[in-house]
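Escalation from tier 1.

The customer reports that the assembly of four entities below gives different structure tokens on two consecutive runs. Tier 1 could not reproduce it. I'm attaching the input and our single run for tier 2 to review.
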Amino acid sequence: MTPRQTVKTQVRLKDVAEMAATSTKTASRVINGDPRVADETRARILAAVRELGYRPDPTARSLRKGTDDTLGIVVDSIADPFFASVTGTIERLAIARGLRVMIASTGRDPRIESTVVNDLLARRVAGLIIAPTATDHSYLRHAPCPVLFVDRRPEGLDGETVLVDDNAGARQAVAHLAAQGHRRVGFVGGKMDVATTRNRLAGYRDQIAASALDADESLVRAARNTADEGRAATTELLALPEPPTAIFSSNTRCSLGVVAALHACKRTDVALVCFGDFALADVLAPGVTVIDHDPQAIGVLAAETMFERLAGAPAVDLERTLPLRLVMRGSGEQPPAGRT
Amino acid sequence: MTPRQTVKTQVRLKDVAEMAATSTKTASRVINGDPRVADETRARILAAVRELGYRPDPTARSLRKGTDDTLGIVVDSIADPFFASVTGTIERLAIARGLRVMIASTGRDPRIESTVVNDLLARRVAGLIIAPTATDHSYLRHAPCPVLFVDRRPEGLDGETVLVDDNAGARQAVAHLAAQGHRRVGFVGGKMDVATTRNRLAGYRDQIAASALDADESLVRAARNTADEGRAATTELLALPEPPTAIFSSNTRCSLGVVAALHACKRTDVALVCFGDFALADVLAPGVTVIDHDPQAIGVLAAETMFERLAGAPAVDLERTLPLRLVMRGSGEQPPAGRT
DNA sequence: CTGTTAGCGCTTTCAC
DNA sequence: GTGAAAGCGCTAACAG
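Tier 1 run:
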């Protein structure tokens, strides 16, 4: 037998209306704050609502109105510290505005992205915030709700986007290392099918050229998606005939591996700048110099932008870029061949 | 050529039925995998489904069936690394079973917990996984769906719970420190209104007594919820007339602060055992000894338990406890007065 | 095997 | 100001 269904019959609007001796429509008006109801009637209805403990059914309301008070958020992985922070911030602000939040992870799989986005759309979400993974987002051109992209630009669509200037951040990192006298700077980063990686790698290459450093492709180790892979890449780089004297790590997952490798090999003399701050970066010896992009700030900006769209305000600029900040802690200020 | 999706004009089951020259009910049967439909009819309907790009409306279905294929997850904060990992794991497994996931954070506020749980319930979630914060969960006794608690036991209700043995973990940590010869062991941990903290503190006190160590309440610094507060608490402890020679940190947020403080004061000779592993714990010098409780394992167990309940299997035991593991990395193996 | 009829709980015409 | 009726898209009953 199936589990016993609770006899707790839900209080419906009809029950409220009956108790207040009025119609469901009038009760509905009161619930929805329609002013055109007699004060006396309104009082009766509110009393009934409180007495019965009535709570409107969001599903029925959603079906009838064709819209929901839920925000859809689609990110790579909720377990990724960066996205966890961004998502958590958005959720907090959304709740404060009386909005619910539905979160879905894609695992960076375009097909999963398409599935979850369509599902969210089918649920009539009020708005959609997406860290894009797919290569074509043109199907969102006529989406029935505001769509905002985060961290990466959509492809095949001029969608409003909140992001950091990956290219500039990478250039800044490499320029900083060049200023310490480094000529051979290694790159460790994620997969090339992620736009963020491509932009950071492009910035790295731009600045290598601009600073006239060694443009050696064997110093570039992309497609490292986990800390373990970042660690392995670092070990490889250090084993090169002409190893780099400095490393730029392009994302936090990699950074954790790079740091682990440098400490394991006792090669903390190798200069290091990481894209993205992380816990304990300031505690290590030496402290890890980072290009800081505050995930909470991204969350706040994304949430506020979405609230503007939900309120009907049109987008002014298609892109909102957040500033980056070089945080010097020691690892990035070491000179080449700094072994002691 | 991928078919263009017009999200605006929704394809309804009625359209599919008309195209297949049948009734909506028969079409509904096919959609829901009812075998009692003629193969030929089924083929016509499936063809229409594909041609029209029909996707069932989850809202309408939910309203009609009185249930949804969404799992509700309620945790302290999605930005907390521990809960991000647990939640991410559950989400991944849920998606794989065709379930959606709705996540809500409470910020450890009992009123917010009550609000979000009721909201999730109003949305007819298929099941609810809760890291409890409120002090009374008796209102969930007759919940219309399976409810599973994670990380902490509910109060006022014998609910099925997945957790780690906080008390035993704390005892193990203190016993380990006692074995190194420490007699004064400090405690840094979260707020006392969180059951996890209470259990770990109780375990700490139990073992202090069992090992006949100094039971000095001035060594106990609870109510530290952030890394900054953990850092401050550590500084306070070290400034005591009779400072501890070892510290037990009861949660990861605190641990990050404790570690930062020890490094900042150059007092890494103070022995340290932390409850909960964290990134770079093995990279620091000395490596941080931890009582490891794998958040992913908790997520897997929680998800599987929930799937069992959704399938109708009754709970065998009310509690499922995950094993803890002492990971020795150096910080917890240092002797007292180990300054060099 | 298939179709018709009623709703799920709510909000929206459009009357009064 | 208020209310009756008509659905939103779907599926549980119960016929046929």
